[in-house]
Amino acid sequence: MATETILSIDCANRWTCLGLWRNGPVGQMELNLGRRQAAQLPLAVEALMNLAEFQLSGVTAVALTVGPGYFTALRIGLAYGSALAFALGVPVVPLSSLEVLARSFPADGLVVPLIAASRSRAFSGAWLHGRQVLEEAERSREDLDAALSGFKEAKYLVAAADERLFSEGDSGGITVIPSASGTAAAGLGFERREEAVSPGGIRARYLREPGLGRSV
User: Fold this and answer.
1) What is the pLDDT of residue 169?
2) Ranges assigned E (strand) in the chain
3) Cα distance between residue 212 and residue 216, in whole Å
4) Which of 87, 113, 170, 201 has the most beta carbons within 10 angstroms of its beta carbon?
5) Euclidean distance between CA atoms 25 and 188, whole angstroms
């Protein structure tokens, strides 16, 4: 059986997160590219491959976060990642950006990843020991607390650094990490490799219609 080499690209949050997996984690990059993301993303992938001493031609699948998250950043990541997969002749593994964030914060309890949706709302879900137990949705802090009230386990609300997350208040109890983990995404891509689709079949999951409400 051939060894799988998974390249992951996560542009759903503020940072651009890349990861490489081959028989385990090989390398990762988390970069704050800002408005340079579209221009710098191909160079960042090339830099990761060079640091890991791998050739792009050896990649067997590209794992892409498809949302929810920042509309423009998701479009950049999906456009580049699917084009790269098409050029390499490999499939794309679609990943939830919330699940990748949850995997980036291993904890013995209920992990609740958050991504800003507006000043007072966030995209959220919940995972317990790697199993999803709360569906992904856009929620206010009040709605989130109500959705979590039935769980008795210790709760860990986690978000990548973003000043707009519940910026009007209700941000207490949230653990902030610098970014999602590139190798967490690549490892999840390896686990989900049987769910791979053709590059042309990848679709974003915004959990809201683009252009409705406050854009993030």
Assistant:
1) 61
2) 6-10, 16-21, 25-31, 61-65, 92-95, 110-116, 121-128, 131-140, 155-160, 174-177
3) 11
4) 113
5) 11
Find how far residue 119's CA is from the centre of its chain. Answer: 20
Beta bridge partners of 157: 112, 174
Cα–Cα dist 154/119, whole Å? 26
Q: Which residue has the tokens 């790269």?
A: 84
What SS3 state is found at 127?
Answer: strand
Domains in the chain with CATH codes: 5-97+180-195 (3.30.420.40), 98-177 (3.30.420.200)
**Does pTM surpass 0.85?**
yes
Q: Which residues of the chain have pLDDT under 50?
A: 210-216
Question: 3-class SS at 111?
Answer: strand
Furthest CA-CA distance within the chain: 53
Q: How far apart are CA 31 and CA 74, in angstroms?
A: 15
Task: For Cα atoms 181, 193, 79, give the angle at the middle one, nearest 5 degrees.
Answer: 65
pLDDT of residue 214: 43
pLDDT of residue 162: 77
* Pairing of the two strands 61-65 and 92-95: parallel
